[in-house]
């Protein structure tokens, strides 16, 4: 059984586990299924805007596929969420990626 199958099996019994969903999205990226990863990251952040780590990975995916404006928007949302959560490390990481792209 590969990692995707194992994660999906665990999600079957706990479908709202954001950590597992995030891990699955990262696995989708590894195999080049950007569309599935994007849908999953967007679902995670719609359902739980405080799941800070997904902002960075979604924005990086969008940046990589040439959707610069969407990437900038997700970086901005992520920075706002990180600031609200007082997560300075994540804020700095998001801000650095944002500035590299926007300026």
Walk me through this protein's architecture.
The chain has 103 residues and is an all-alpha fold. The chain contains six helices and no strands. It has helices at 3-13, 18-30, 34-47, 53-64, 68-84, 88-102. Helix 3 packs antiparallel against helix 4 and helix 4 packs parallel to helix 6. The longest helix is centred in the C-terminal third of the chain and has 17 residues, at 68-84.
Topology:
Blueprint: H1 3-13, H2 18-30, H3 34-47, H4 53-64, H5 68-84, H6 88-102
Helix pairs in contact: 1-2, 2-3, 3-4, 4-5, 4-6, 5-6
In brief:
With 103 residues, this protein is mostly helical. The chain has helices spanning 3-13, 18-30, 34-47, 53-64, 68-84, 88-102. The chain is built from 6 helices and no strands.
Main attributes?
mainly alpha; 0% strand; globular; 103 residues
Helix- and strand-based class?
Answer: mainly alpha
**What is the number of helices?**
6
So what's the overall shape? globular
In helices, the fraction of residues equals over 70%
> Cα-atom Rg, whole angstroms?
14 Å
Taking the alpha carbons of the first and last residues, their distance comes to 44 Å
Number of E strands: 0
Q: What's the pLDDT, averaged over the residues?
A: 97
Strand content: under 5%
Biggest sheet features: none
Written as H for each helix and E for each strand, in order along the chain, the element string is HHHHHH
């Amino acid at each position: 059984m590969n990692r995707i199958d194992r994660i999906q099996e665990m999600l079957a019994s706990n479908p709202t586990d954001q950590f597992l969903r995030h891990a699955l999205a990262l696995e989708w990226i590894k195999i080049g299924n950007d569309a599935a990863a994007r849908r999953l990251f967007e679902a995670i952040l719609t359902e739980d805007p405080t799941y800070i780590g997904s902002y960075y990975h979604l924005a990086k995916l969008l940046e990589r596929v040439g959707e610069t404006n969407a990437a900038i928007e997700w970086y901005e949302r992520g920075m706002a969420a990180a600031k609200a959560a007082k997560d300075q490390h994540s804020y700095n990481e998001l801000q650095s990626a944002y500035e590299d792209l926007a300026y």
